[in-house]
Amino acid sequence: MRPSDEPGTGRAATAAEAPPVFRLRDVTKRFGGVTAVEGVGFDLRPGEVHALVGENGAGKSTLMKMVHGLYAPDEGTLEVGGEATEFSSPRDAEAAGIAMIPQELDLFPELSVTENLFVGRHRPRTRWGTLDRAAMRGKARERLGSLGVDLDVTASVKGLSAANQQIVAIARALVGEARAVVMDEPTASLTEREVRQLFRIISDLTSGGVGVVYISHRLEEVFTISDRITVLRDGHHITTAPAADLDAEELVRLMVGRPLNELFTRSPHSPGEVALEVRGLGRAGEFEEVDLVVRRSEIVGLSGLVGAGRSEVAQAIFGIRSPESGEIRIDGEVVRIKSPQAAMEKGIFYVPEERRSQGLILPFSIKNNITLSILDRIARFGFVPRTERQTADRFAKGLSIRGGSVSDPVSRLSGGNQQKVVLAKSLAREPSILLLDEPTRGIDVGAKSEIYRLIDDLAKEGKAILLISSELEEVLSMSDRVVVMREGRITGEFGRNEADQERVMTAATGGRDRPAPAGRGEEAPEDE
Amino acid sequence: MSEVQTPTPAQSGANGTVLSRWLVRPEAPALVFLAVLLVAFSLSSDEFLSGSNLESILVSVAVLGTIALAVNQVILCGEIDISTGSMMGLCAVAAGAVATSTGGLILPLLTGVAVGALAGAANGLLVTLGRIPSIIVTLGMLYALRGVILLVTGGTWITGIPDGTRVLGTGSVLGIEYPVFVLLILFVVMEMVSRHSTWGRNVFAVGGNRRASRLAGLPIDRVRFLSFVLVGVFVGIASIIYLGRAGSVQTNTGTGLELQVVAAVVIGGTSISGGRGSTLAALTGAVLIGVILNGLILVGVPGIWQDAVLGALILLAVTTDVLRRRLLGDKS
Amino acid sequence: MSAATAALRRLKLSREVVLLGVLIVLMVVMSLLSPLFLTVGNLLNTSRFFVEVGLMALGMTLIIITGGIDLSVGSNVALVSVAVGFSYAAGLPLPLAILFGLVVGLAAGLFNGLFITLLDLHPLVVTLGTFALFQGLAYGLSKAEAVSDFPPWFAYFGQAYFLNVVPGQLFIFILAVVVVWLILSRTRFGRYVYAIGNNEEAAHFSGVPVRRVKLALYSGIGLLVGMAAVIYTSRVYTARGDSGLGLELDVISAVVLGGASIYGGSGTIGGTVLGVLIIATLRNGLVLAGVPSTWQVFVLGVLLLVAVFLNEFFRRREE
């Protein structure tokens, strides 16, 4: 477990009877045919940390986007300061004192740190009416200083590390006068020390009467920092309770809806020959000196924080990014893979993390998606044969894809069924090595359980599987071996019996006191 | 909330970083290229480096440069405007017609600016409210406005522009010819607007990351709309300079200008995908084009090769931009 | 689900039905404006003009479906025309000169494609540059002069009649329509084109050879431009540096009018053919009705804007 020197930061400040900063009443939000959130209530009191937990796809982000004016609820109301309110844009929300730090950072890479903090906000001016750049830089430094970092505020954001970009995003949200701050997975790419800095900031905020909604997967953080916890599952409100009344096991049961051991399928399989071997793989700024071995009938879990370089390594193996050093061996033979087509020829298939943007052609039918990667095999003289449909049908049935016939567009399927289509596409290619990048992200529990069974079956059949996942339970339950990456390097490797939460997390975050990434500490006359 | 005071490190100002900072500025390659060209042409032709030739180069790019300063903003927003050639023609026709009946500078100028602003507003509305890509809008407008010119003039020339109107093209102030003077004034204005106005800063944000701009609550449509209107206004001003210099308007006035303008902006170093660039880049690009066209004539290349040179320059500019980014290791 | 699918199919059908309706109404109006319009001779004669635009529009449809665009086709016509005329004037036998012209067209397209794929540049910028470059080369190489002393048989490509009424180039066009339609709707290549247009990144991740497909498309349109340019040069019997000036507008308008989304991902050959016919009818009808050619440019520019606007409007309504 994470050591904590600042227990229950906001707890003391909670005034249980104070009127809420905002309250959602019975809100429902649908996207096309899919109901993302149904009849959920949620409120945030001044000075409290209210954790919002649930699995991926449970509806947490959707719920908070309604608070932040990005979505309007289809049913139900939003009350701010006791009055029913409708936000038509995030700007309205921010004017009402509700700030959000989104999961995917929305920064301006070409602009300086200072400019990023002031985009869309009031900028200080000199008496000549020109921008007071010195004051802007001073404010930016001050704001970042209060987060415990010291960055070159004139440097452009694209040159910063992932953690520092996160800090800029947090600083950006706090530039306004917020009464409520929503933080969506703020610690996903932070080191231990940076997490503690963040908790200190949160405690400063709450003692000033600001309410904080804290969305996180990391349960130990949730228990460390929150006063109340709300659990969502499949778009429904499960419970809201004081953090003191819950424990980790109970919370997991509420989130998953059943005990963990029923979710995962894991049958014994005996790893065979080495199928994929990577030696000294490197690519400037992304990863270096990566050694990795995956055998037949073996599931190797690849764990680490967001931004640790795991997807980049997998994509390098798949020919999407060309490695600058090191070598890749397939069945013992050195290969040079320059494109996904070449990787597929060698029996490798990568199932990307970004399902909608990288995995699927959304307007295409299920059939056209499933057969997209095998067209070069099944086409006759360049023409697509009629047997295409039977092929697609076979895989759609094999993976029990539900929600439409194979001629329907995949855009209408639920997240879980969409993910099955991506998997079907990869299996149609009959790969011997599968690189699965967050294969269960954002899908419901039922589909998850099916996908775990599928992964287990594939390993039994003799496929070599690399399972990239940010969910510790998933990695620990499914893998024969766990490899951990941090900041582009392999920092730990554990056999099935040695791997546990603490060891993996330590390797992923670099243990206790790591120095915070230093700012560049340089100043140049211009900040363009 | 409490402010934790952290000591800022000693601000190291003037060391090696100044040069490296300067080199990554968007217009740096164009400026270097310009310097090389100036040296090359002055070595191969004695007339080139004479004061009068240099001033005549600046005069010749005044129209181009003025419009490029505004189109620069459109491109920074992540949009494009290729209607400026016909728009310039139309503004010149309207201003010319007013000039021949009333004379003077103010009325024709206001007419040109108003017509330009209207045309720019039409572009802006179609792009923002109509949600049509700007390349299509302005391509359609390029042809539609040329049609309007032909309709209005009936295919005849407008001649006999009175001297009072032509002052912006022929006169001089403080020993500087007016076209150069106007161009420099507008450059300073745009530089200030770009650096210090909220709109000027928003332009960079909208072009750099539109999604984030939406989340930050920026008025994306208004920012883009204004940049299109600005193009119209600057085209209107440029049309008066044109009237002054040419003294007449033909139905094909401004043909092909739109390409030179876009070329000037991208050659100068503003990224065609938006979000990165500078006002100086637009000016540098325009001067660069002027120097090249002038230099080619001086070294004896026939004028019919002008388009080919322009096209090659655009390709060269975008290629250097890509290669520079790759060399700097910008993998995004 | 299946009801929605059926509705969607009906909608797709109706887009082409609407275009057909527009075409018929246009023809009726034109025949009222000019008694000459609705004669077999005139209708067939009209095809002389649209074959050139039509050939290029076929290639442009595929390019626009991938989310790209080619602004350089008009200039490329000039380049090919000059290549044919001036290589012939320089002593090359005419068949070889024509072959040379086709090679130049293909090479120009390949040039675009290489720039776009190797440097990851937006096709808009590249073809804006080559628009000027090709035009300038055509002017420069021809020294702004014209060649028109071709042997009589050269007229065959652009002026011949089959059975005294059907213009010869119509057959070339029909053949090209069938071939491109088959490619787009029946082949692996066609599937790749749609995949790239709908989600280029996912297509790349799925093993679609994105660069090769794009390279083939831009080279392919270069070849079609070459064919169109030869027909054009034969029809006007002159090779000059300003041949094909502004044709890119006709071509892009026809494709967009035919329902291809300028954002990529959708479009059909059937729609494009209808778009080409509508534009040809409009141009021919306006000429017959005695409307000055100045108007035609205006009408075409406005037509392009209206077509894109309606397209995107209806597409948003569907979603």
Largest sheet of chain A: 6 strands, mixed
What structural category arises from helix and sheet content of chain A?
A: alpha/beta
Let me know the average pLDDT of chain A.
83
Structural class of chain B: mainly alpha
Q: Outline of chain A, from the CA principal axes?
A: globular
Runs of chain A with pLDDT <50, length 5+?
1-15, 512-528
Q: What is the C-alpha radius of gyration of chain A, as a whole number of Å? A: 24 Å
CATH fold-type name of the largest domain in chain A:
Rossmann fold
Share in β-strands of chain B: under 5%
What topology, given as strand order, has the largest sheet of chain B? 1-2
User: Largest interface, and how many residues on either side?
Assistant: B-C, 45 and 47 residues
CATH class of the largest domain in chain A: Alpha Beta
Determine the number of helices of chain A (DSSP H or I, runs of at least 4 residues): 18
CATH structural architecture of the largest domain in chain A: 3-Layer(aba) Sandwich
Helix content of chain B: 55-70%
In total, the number of strands of chain B is 2
Number of helices of chain B: 15
The oligomeric status of these chains comes to: heterotrimer
* H-E order of chain B: HHHHHHHHEEHHHHHHH
Helix amount of chain A, in percent? 25-40%
